[in-house]
Amino acid sequence: MPNVNEILVSAADLRKSYGEHEAVRGVDFEIRRGEAFGFLGANGAGKSTTMRMIGCVSQPTAGTLTVFGRDPHTEGAAIRARLGVVPQDNTLDGMLTVFENLVVYAGYFGIKKKAARERAAELLEFVQLTARAKDQVSDLSGGMQRRLAIARSLINDPELVILDEPTTGLDPQARHLVWERLFQLKHRGVSILLTTHYMDEAEQLCDRLVVMDEGRIIASGSPRELIDTHVTKEVVELRFGTAHTRELAALAQSLDGVGAQIEPLPDRILVYTDDADDTNAALDARDIRPTSVLARRATLEDVFLRLTGRALVEDEA
Amino acid sequence: MSVIAYGAARAGLRNSGALLNRNWIAMRRAWILILSGAVESLLFLFAFGFGVGALVGDITLPDGTAVSYTAYVAPAILANAAMMGVLAETSINVFAKFKWMKVYDGILNTPLRPFEVALGEVWWALIRGFTYIGAFVVVMGLFGLLDSWWALLAIPACVFIALAFAGIGLTLATLFRDWTDFDWMNAVVFTMFLFGGTFTPVESYPSLLQPVVYVMPLYHGIELVRGISLGQLGPMMLVHIAYLLALCLGGMWIAQRRLARALYK
């Protein structure tokens, strides 16, 4: 039995600068064996840079980092031999077929030809691409390419799989298929490290996560803990026709007291409350009539909003 | 220490071999491209050796021996073939894999290190270069252009040319920004082909131009192969070999550093 408390990755005051720009500004975290650990944050928060440092393909500027108890600076190749990486842009080999991509990649890890072919066939089965084995990579859809990249990352039976935004750019159906495969991996006891800017992804997949913003970790814990600590149980979303930023800010003043906290956004007002019914009653009592009212459970999105004052995916069209 | 060095060398060999395997699998569907390169050099031999050679007749070497012009030009065209095959593989193909296909971006997450990638590409370029050289030497033999069995040493002599241009090509692949940069590379290559001693002895050039020729890597390759093919051995051969080896090692060193810097940001 693997020791579940074994620490796979440990970072202390980890930093990375590119010239003047500080991408990662001192982060601390520990990732244990068997857990699914998430880095949540908007684009440019420093998630990918942190992943690259853990993957031993980027040199930290300062701070300490150990992976499998080893130093990435001096033992990068030995660490990489035990990792599986799914980069954001897949980086599949466009000159090779689907099957060849796996077999050739196995070769980079020193896996013998026969074992490589067996493993490749198994993994294609796992990501449901067996029928496409002889196709060129460019003939695959985005979701299939991502699944192939996931299969490729598993070729060396890694102890830790790093996925950088595994479902960004995929349609909902393809996302669910990827999630489902990642769940399978989790059940097999593979340790998973992923970055995402999708709340639902983090909530569904991660046992523990950190929220990153502008190169720093601003919160950490399990999805439930984060929600309990930083936001109320429920959220009521109010829309007032075409009313926008400034009008909404003014309206928000008149809402004072209907919930625990009022958060005006560009297109709607969020009311954080422990009981949505009470909030609705309070709105009625004040004769405030929004054009639409939506009561829902608080999510990680709300945590992020409360912590940073910004929506997570606002820069996405 | 020697145990560590042995381990590192073995890992380097195994890892660069994995890249060799990748190139082989990727290229086996495009073997016709490799063949067309070999044919090109043979066309040069026919055009210059037999076409021009029939007009020129014999040529007198510095030591007074007379050889047919075809026998004089053939080794130079062989040297050129060794250069072209390797240069095309390392510069254009590596550039495509590096900047365009992003093949190395996928490899960098594996235990392979940049110098092993560079080494693998050199191996591969040598193999491709040798398909050209082998075909060419066979044709030279068929036309009676190999004076003795010693001339078969021209093949290992081509190794040094191939190594030098593998190093140069790799460095160029990491330096070039886009495809237009290859135009000036081709211009330099063609200049070397014309003036590197392919068609006339360098001694017949104006004395001001001669130092320029001595810097050209191809000149050293031509002199080496020609000397061996015509049985004109001498201490200068060691200088040629040293120059070519230095270019190989220097080129590989620069290339792997630039690869590392570009990939391990």
UniProtKB/TrEMBL annotation, chain A:
Q: How does it sit in the membrane?
A: Peripheral membrane protein
According to its UniProt entry, the protein's GO biological process terms are: response to antibiotic
List the Pfam families hit by this protein, alphabetically. Answer: ABC_tran
CC annotations in GO:
plasma membrane
Keyword Nucleotide-binding, does the record have it?
yes
Location relative to the cell: Cell membrane
Q: Which GO terms describe its molecular function?
A: ATP binding; ATP hydrolysis activity
Q: What keywords is this UniProt entry annotated with?
A: Antibiotic resistance, ATP-binding, Cell membrane, Membrane, Nucleotide-binding, Translocase, Transport
SMART domains in the record, alphabetically? AAA
Stretches assigned to the ABC transporter domain: 9-239
Q: Which PANTHER family match?
A: ABC TRANSPORTER ATP-BINDING PROTEIN, ABC TRANSPORTER ATP-BINDING PROTEIN NATA
Assigned protein family? Belongs to the ABC transporter superfamily.
The identity of this protein, by name, is ATP-binding cassette domain-containing protein
Instruction: Give the classification, highest ranks.
Output: Bacteria, Bacillati, Actinomycetota, Actinomycetes, Glycomycetales
